[in-house]
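Lab notebook, bench 4. Still working through the backlog of constructs that have no structural model yet. Next entry is a single chain of 534 residues. Request: give me the structure tokens for it.
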Amino acid sequence: MSEDRDDAQPTGSARPPRPGGTRTALAALSGLIAGFCALAVAELAAALVRPEAGPVTAVGGAVIDRTPPAVRDFAVRNFGTSDKLALRLGILVLLALFAMAIGVLALRHRRLGSAAVLVFGLVGAVAAAGRPEGVPADALPSVVGAAVAVAVLYLLVGRLAPAPGPAPEAGGFDRRGFVVAATATAAVSAGAGLLGRRLTSSVQAGASASRHDLVLPVPRSAAAAVPAGAEPRIRGLTPFFTPDKDFYRVDTALVVPRVDAGAWRLRIHGRGVARPVTVGLHDLLRREIVERDITLACVSNEVGGPLVGNARWLGVRLADLLREAGVRPPSEGGPADQIVARSVDGMTIGTPVETVMDGRDALLAFGMNGEPLPFEHGFPVRMVVPGLYGYVSACKWIEDIELTTFAAYDAYWVLRGWAQQAPVKTESRIDTPGPSASPKAGVVPVAGVAWAQHRGISRVEVRVDGGKWHTARLAAAGTRDTWRQWVWEWPAASGRHTLEVRATDKTGATQTGIRTGTVPDGATGWHSVVVDVS
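Model written out:
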């Protein structure tokens, strides 16, 4: 005779025991391993498609595309040229957290957990294929990675199922089977990731070799010698030429494009182009080679910021190529007023036709400071236009030039709230003494740089604690397209003081003291530093 018990449950309504703490933690680990597998396999697949198709790169690119200007400026201001590394690390941290959460979900609902993995794979696929330079095949790495992650997650979470028996204890599962499966999948994934990196390096080796083998020609029109006295010897003062390794880099490329110089081509076409042109690097090397010293500045540079640099560039005049293609500037009746330059990574930059063709040294550059362009700065060819901020002129890894109008087309940054046209503003910066410095009382050299590309600097002034302006001594001028160093001998008295600087360009315009942000066409205001004189 059976005995009724209050705690008995009908067989049909029996529930699995709740996951214990150990099983929950291992489920999170399972999700993390599955995510690692997805990224490793996707890395391998991206090596067979193209490196930019990897899910982290694709999602990161999509994030950059949708980042408001204020947030972008915050990233540049706080992380500088490490902003992309910070973004990649942020994406990896978020992916790890989501992967662990999906692992815990899959412990209770394996199908639902698998569906969540597929959703993340779909996000990566859409981000990759939806990039400006994306193609349908770019979705493949994310899809393959997600499929492998589903299989791995299903396998590992299955090992965490309660051990068979009439009344399994909470926490009872195949521990040995889980450890073996987790170790094996992690090891295979690591191998796949390493293989993917090896393949990517192999593919990029040709581009590296083409840069190594490039012999820069002797310029027919060499840069003028830097005059004596252009670079005062003052500790802490920025050098006249910025070394390649220190030259600022602000772009949207999470993976630096590595283009084989032998395969590179540039196409010129569009409105008013009577004879469309396609040229390779060797075609450019046979033209008249021009060498010029030109200072570049980023529109995201805050007042007193570091996103400005001066280099010696080697290339050919873009205006010559345009005229050979039959292009006329608007002042001569040409129908196009905008050049849209396209990079291999999908970036578009709009530059005024009139500016490029007004006689200034607007270059298609392939050399920088006596060496072929570094990959980070646009190898094999980039645009350099003195007098304009980089976002409207300095297209790196350029592959296409289309002639159009500003009314017909908005380039990448214009769509995100920046101005269509942006001449460089007259700016100045105090390099030394630095913020919170503690010089001794007496004569203290206050020194820095000032720039107003294609106008030149005629005067720099410094004042202390809001008092009268003092004229600084200008270093010898390079050209009107380069920055100019300056120094003022300050008779410093003890105490805390605020130093301010302003510059006047050769048109007579003096730098405004009104502080504005970088959006939409560059920051304004006087740079200041606070020092404690002992």
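Notes after review: The radius of gyration is 30 Å. The chain is about 30% helix and 20% strand. Flag for follow-up if needed.
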